[in-house]
Specification:
alpha+beta, about 140 residues, 8 strands, two-stranded antiparallel sheet, about 15% helix, single chain, Ubiquitin-like (UB roll)
Length: about 140
Amino acid sequence: MDQLEEGTALSIDFGKIHRAAASPEGLVPVVLQHADTKDVLFVGYANHLALAETLASGRAVLWSASRDELWRKGETSGDVLALVEVRVNCEQNALLYLVRPVGGGACHTRDASGATRPTCFYRRVADGALVFVEGFEPST
């Protein structure tokens, strides 16, 4: 079992934004939200290429800060996120992709049944540890 993704120890990666900011690509954070349920699915990053392809293709495309390449969500997993709308915040330094999942879920992790989780926000902080949200039990 992967302790980072399936464990209950609180281990926030406070260096992620710093590493993403160091990318020569010029990235902005992207919140991906289900257009119908309003559930936040996950947070990613986009550069100008990812945003342009998202708008042209009608599906969520991000920039993988860890792999330094375009990430066409669902290309390998089948968990495509169809674009409904792109919004920009007041300072134009963050994006909101309103999307509809096509196929499975949105997260790369799997639940106890082996299905792709519908959101990456499946745990909550309680008493300094992580607790699985009801309905999002850990995989075994």
